[in-house]
Design brief:
Elements lengths: L2 E6 L4 H12 L6 E7 L5 E7 L15 E7 L14 E2 L5 E7 L4 H10 L11 H9 L5 H11 L4 E7 L5 E5 L5 E4 L4 E4 L11 E4 L4 E5 L3 E5 L11 E2 L15 H7 L1 H9 L3 H13 L3 E5 L1 H18 L4 E4 L15 E6 L5 H12 L3 E6 L5 H5 L2 E4 L12 H17 L3 H18 L2 H14 L4 E6 L4 H15 L2 E6 L16 E5 L6 H13 L3 E6 L8 E4 L7 H19 L18
The chain binds 5-amino-5-deoxy-1-O-phosphono-D-mannitol.
5-amino-5-deoxy-1-O-phosphono-D-mannitol (M6R) binds next to helix 8 and helix 14.
Length: 586
């Protein structure tokens, strides 16, 4: 997590970096700091606890080189002392870092033993002191040698007093180089510099870039030169802005009018090819984290329902425990908006060791997962900035439907269902619909718990609903399979406890209504979501009848409800406390 960025060029470097950090704030927003190389080659610094968005000036003098960091705390509390950049003993080397140094305790003791003085509780600071030890070799070699000592996934950028440039290295956390006209950027994510350039080069693991005149890439292991490919990104800067909306989350929910259509605009023969591979594989695993994981779990039901086929869902952080079931004929399908989630990348590493083929559904073109996969389906949702995933979710689901239908040779039937679904989502997202959900939010916004139940295809979406409610409104949301309630959770229901019931016109409708009745009999306040009204509902939110595609339409009102609950409760909608958009640490 954390966002890091660096700039060298004709602009006012610290200002450019400050603006870039605002675009990276979704990665971490506990505190921020910038270091720039002042006129005499002296390093000047600014550090602040809190968010950067309200700042308009850095207070630093104009310069052509600067680095900046927006923090999501891991080692050491949120304080100015722990805010990056961190320095060596002589304040001549400044370092920013995204990741975790697994052997930091050992390095800190070792460096302390050699007389290095530490001024923060962070793991990052050891890098500054390690670079200091090798500094007679020049900044490039010093960074390379320092990174040889550091274990874990990291991305690091360093500047040095008197050195007119910067050096960046990657050992697991993302770093992208933006190539402008006589100006260069390095950043954890592309939106940081989209205003300036769409031409990028990706650093892979164990690579570094030295930006003096123009970027030169090296292998971290050998120190030898590395060739990189220039990629042009097709996102526009506007897509990454809020526009007329108050928050990215509501903008991105509303974009689902288009994004489902964009997602299914895939090459049919590629979909068919992968579907054939699923049919002939020795087991297919789906993996992802958080919301993407719930999409994978829905995938298990989608394949069962549509293709009568068993696929395995495993949460990425648990995937290494399934290593023994993997063969070269196994297929791993990963789902990730960012393509940078550490647990997903680790799952890929585990699978690759066993010769497994990797297929990915990714939103960010050129992300690590995209580059590590044998085949990628880009979900084409455009930049998703709010920490709460919304439009990526429905786009990912849509592609899983296509794949499932294709395994039965009926890809066109699947496409037609999704076209119908996309058009009904378009109708659904109207001002009256939004107002009805806002009205519900007003009724339940003071409650401390919300339960969500579903069955069959809508059970994984009950789990996803809970994530939305938790992260956006800070209300305790909990999702269950409808049938599980009476095995324990029913004890939690009191008079007025809200319980959302996800329904569809399907064969489990009578059972889920039965579960709703059980909750109602204990005083629960029943919120029905689905195409059919029922007497047990205290409040009903209609969703269109799209048959097997009900998870797509049912999750949207929950996204909206979570949004309005968060607004009414005064929460930080786009940047929930303690969370970050890309979880690049395990
Ligand atoms: O970028 P990814 O899709 O791999 O991210 C996975 C999760 O971290 C993400 O879905 C997270 O659960 C969201 N905050 C949920 O809204």
């Amino acid at each position: 997590m954390c966002g890091i960025t660096a700039y060298k060029g004709k602009g006012d470097a610290s200002f450019v970096v400050m603006e870039a950090l605002k675009k990276l704030e979704y990665r971490g927003y506990d505190s921020w700091g910038i270091a720039s190389l002042g006129a005499e080659g002296i390093i000047e610094t600014v550090k602040n606890v809190g968010k950067i968005s309200s700042h308009t000036e850095t207070g630093l003098r104009q310069s052509s080189v600067a680095i900046g960091h927006t923090r999501w705390a891991t080692h050491g509390g949120v304080s100015e002392r722990n805010t990056h950049p961190h320095f060596d003993c002589g304040n001549e080397i400044a370092v920013i870092h995204n990741g975790i140094i697994e052997n930091f305790d050992e390095l800190r003791r070792e460096l302390g033993g050699r007389g290095h003085e530490f001024r923060s509780e962070t793991d990052t600071e050891v890098i500054a002191h390690l670079i200091e030890e090798f500094s007679s070799l020049g900044l490039k070699e010093a960074v390379r040698k320092a990174m040889e000592r550091v274990k874990g996934r990291s991305a690091v950028i360093a500047i040095k007093k008197g050195y007119d440039g910067f050096v960046a290295a990657r050992t697991g956390s993302p770093l992208i180089v933006g190539i402008g006209e006589n100006e260069y950027f390095v950043s954890s994510d592309i939106p940081a510099f989209l205003d300036h350039t769409k031409n990028v080069m990706y650093l892979d693991d164990d690579e570094m870039v030295v930006v003096e005149k123009k970027p030169v890439f090296y292998s971290l292991k050998s120190g030898g030169l590395v060739e990189k490919r220039l990629i042009t990104i097709d996102w526009s800067a506007d897509q990454a802005e809020k526009g007329e909306f108050e928050h990215f989350m509501i903008k991105e929910i509303m974009e689902q009018k288009d994004t489902i259509l964009r997602a299914i605009n895939q090459n049919d023969s590629e979909i068919q090819k992968i579907a054939n591979e699923i049919n002939s594989s020795f087991g297919t695993f789906f993996t992802g984290c958080g919301t993407a994981g719930k999409v994978c779990f829905t995938g298990q039901y989608i394949f069962s329902k549509i293709a009568n086929k068993h696929v395995n869902y495993v949460n990425s952080s648990e995937f290494p425990n399934y290593e023994h079931f993997l063969r070269p004929e196994t297929l791993l399908i990963t789902v990730s908006q960012s393509g940078e989630t550490a647990d997903v990348l680790e799952a890929v590493k585990t699978a690759k060791k066993k010769g497994v083929k990797i297929i990915s559904l990714v939103n960010v073109k050129g992300s690590t997962l995209d580059r590590q996969s044998d085949h990628t389906f880009l979900i084409n949702a455009g930049p998703e900035k709010a920490v709460a995933s919304t439009k990526a979710t429905t786009a990912q689901l849509a592609i899983l439907y296509l794949l499932a239908y294709a395994t039965t040779g009926k890809i066109h039937e699947g496409k037609n269902l999704l076209l119908e679904t996309a058009s009904k989502v378009n109708d659904m997202l109207n001002p009256r619909y939004l107002a009805r959900i806002e009205e519900l939010a007003k009724i339940i916004c003071k409650k401390s718990d919300i339960y969500i139940i579903g069955r069959g295809l809508n059970y994984p979406m009950a789990l996803e609903s809970a994530i939305k409610v938790q992260e956006v409104s800070y209300i305790h949301g909990h999702g269950f399979a409808g049938g599980e309630l009476k095995h324990g959770p029913l004890a939690l229901i009191e008079k007025g406890t809200p319980c959302i019931v996800l329904t569809a016109k399907d064969d489990v409708f009578p059972q889920i209504i039965g579960n709703a009745m059980e909750v109602k009999a204990r005083g629960g306040y029943i919120i029905g979501i689905g195409p059919e009204k029922h007497g047990v509902f205290d409040y009903w939110i209609k969703t269109p009848d799209v048959r097997e595609a009900s998870p797509i339409v049912n999750i949207i009102p929950v996204q909206l409800l979570a949004y309005y609950l968060g607004v009414l409760r005064g929460c930080e909608i786009d940047y929930p406390r303690n969370l970050a958009k890309s979880v690049t640490v395990q």
